[in-house]
Amino acid sequence: MTKKEDEQALISPAVKPSQNFENSREAVAYLIVLYQEAAEFLCEKFVSVLGNGESRNRYRAYYPEVRITTNSYASVDSRLSFGHVTGAGKFAATITRPSMFRQYLEQQIGLLIENHKVPVEIAYSDTPIPIHFAIANDPDLVVPPEAAGFTLRDVFDVPNLNTLNDDIVNGVVVTKADGHMPLAPFSAQRVDYSLARLAHYTATSPEHFQNHVLFTNYQFYVEEFEAFSRQQLDDPSSGYFSLVGTGNHSIENGSEFLEGSDKIPQMPTYHLKRADGSGISLVNIGVGPSNAKTATDHIAVLRPHAWLMVGHCAGLRNSQDLGDFVLAHAYLREDHVLDEDVPIWVPIPALAEIQTSLEQAVAEITEYSGYDLKKIMRTGTVATIDNRNWELKDQSGPVLRLSQSRAIALDMESATIAANGYRFRVPYGTLLCVSDKPLHGELKLPGMATDFYKTQVTRHLRIGIRAMEILREMPLESIHSRKLRSFQETAFL
Predict the structure, then answer these.
(1) CB under 8 Å to 439, separation ≥6 — which residues?
(2) DSSP letters for 249-282
(3) 252 and 180 together in one domain
(4) CATH number of the domain enclosing 302
(5) Does 464 fall in a domain?
(6) Please, what is the average pLDDT of the chain?
(7) Taking the C-alpha atoms of 107, 109, 113 and 114 in order, what is their torsion angle to the nearest 10 degrees?
(8) Do 171 and 36 belong together in one domain?
(9) What average pLDDT does the segment 159-181 reach?
(10) Residue 309's pLDDT is what?
(11) Would you list the DSSP string of 88-126?
């Protein structure tokens, strides 16, 4: 601690006592109370300091925390991949934005109470809330530049990169100084960091995200998604009630005009919403594995039930035609962006529930079935690379690897999305559409591409949407596969 910090008085809000709960709704309600009081305290002091200039005091408030203590090593219902701790001990998780995550928290805490027959404790943690994340609750507040008359970090806590990491979800066992092991895959600071990034990249508030996420790499799909959404909003039986676009603009019937944001965001995102959050969010991540990693790194904290890649690819077999579909059941990973987090020797398994849903959706939308389905869809390995113009280099090495891996398609995002789904325990899948065949002289040229886009985009997107609808009807214990869980797993999904 610096001399200046020694001289400053540390001021915090009055600490409410910890409480034990045997009802998840009551527990989450208390989490909301604790978080709101802490965030409101910081916002109030921020406004005061901003108006008065440099403060002689230092202000700090803390995230609330969920804790549970178990004394038994008895196993619980092993068919469920979440909702229980792995053995006796003390477990805890810091929580942010509990109002936003109310449904998720009630579910996870409720399962803990039910499975272990012990209460949960709700209290303040010893983790400070960074001022940037606290004021994110108030859209009228912004963090000023240093020229505002005081140094922000002298008065408030700021994001700490030493604690802002993925150690928990990467399998690094993190035990706090008080002996508590992690209860959730992400800390509160890590969640807040991603919520802020999502708002920036997508130009929509994270609150609008739905539990089923479609990724694409072309704007054409966004236009088709908007058209489909308008049809659904005009159908009272669809269950959808709103379409939210960039800038958080929304419509509730198909004939309304949907405004856009002042500036096109990096990853335009649209949310077709249902009351229970089981709608569909479409994210145009653009091109490349770096974008794919960025999007999934942050969306993962929302704990979606599934994400799928529906984009374009290069077909690698002469038997494929432009417009054919590729259902990935394995991945050749040459994207490199996740090599440290998910080494390439880690197998990325195909998830049966996702695969069958996609295949069923293709059959329904195209009206092909059985052997006839093979005319337009092939299942196999998808290669993901980080060099869009790989054709311009010596092809002997890449082509050999493609052949050895039995690859049937090549893109720049699918394996990244699948690997991050594996890493973050988010069910994943890939259905691509062949847009060119570079190994066979059919390059993606303007005229050919235009014709392809006109004929195939609508059908491809409808297949992705239909697959999500099928997954929506599945019980969570079927979708969230145990094969994605490691030895030391968190209780929270």
Answers:
(1) 314, 316, 399
(2) -EESSTTS-----SS--SS-EEEEEETTS-SEEE
(3) no
(4) 3.40.50.1580
(5) yes
(6) 89
(7) 20
(8) yes
(9) 84
(10) 97
(11) SEEEEEE---TTTTHHHHHHHHHHHHHHH---EEEEEEE
- Tokens (6 digits) for 163: 């604690």
Q: For the segment 256-290, what is each residue's pLDDT rounded down to a tens digit?
A: 999 988 888 999 999 999 999 999 999 999 999 99
Query: Looking at the structure, do residues 420 and 321 belong to the same domain, yes or no?
Result: yes
The letter for the amino acid at 29 is A
pLDDT in tens, 424-447: 999 999 999 998 776 655 566 565
- Amino acid letter for position 30: Y
Instruction: Please state, in angstroms and rounded to a whole number, the distance separating the CA atoms of residues 272 and 419.
Output: 26
Q: Are residues 79 and 210 in the same domain?
A: no
Does 167 or 415 have the greater pLDDT score? 415
Sheet holding 181-182, edge to edge: 19-21, 120-128, 62-70, 89-94, 181-182
Asked if 382 and 332 touch (Cβ cutoff 8 Å), the reply is yes
Number of domains in the chain: 2
Phi/psi at 388 (5° precision)? -60, -30
Decide which of 139, 172, 193 is a domain's last residue. Answer: 193
Does the residue 493 lie in any domain? no
Q: Which domain holds residue 434?
A: 203-483
CATH number at residue 93: 3.30.1730.10
Do 151 and 273 share a domain, yes or no?
no
Residues 6+ apart with CB under 8 A from 345: none
Question: Same structural domain for residues 417 and 337?
Answer: yes
Q: Are residues 255 and 137 in the same domain?
A: no
CA distances from 317 to 242, 351, 380 (A): 42, 24, 11
**149's tokens:** 């008359």
Long-range contacts of 167-173 (CB under 8 A, 24+ apart): 168/490, 169/300, 169/423, 169/424, 169/425, 170/341, 170/423, 171/486, 171/487, 171/488, 173/488
Surface-to-core class of residue 98, CB atoms within 10 Å of its CB (0-12 exposed, 13-18 middle, 19+ buried):
buried
Find where tokens 């130009």 sit: 203
448 — pLDDT class (breaks 50, 70, 90): low
Q: Please, what sign has the CA dihedral across residues 444, 445, 448, 453? A: positive
Token pair for 208 = 């609008």
CA–CA separation, 86 and 258 (whole Å) = 48
Q: For residue 198, is it within any domain?
A: no
Given 193, 227, 253, the domain boundary residue is 193
- Asked if 310 contacts 213 with a C-beta cutoff of 8 angstroms, the reply is no
Burial of 97 per CB tally in 10 Å (0-12, 13-18, 19+): buried
Helices (H), 94-244: 102-116, 131-134, 152-155, 188-202, 219-233
* 31 alpha-carbon distance from chain centroid: 23
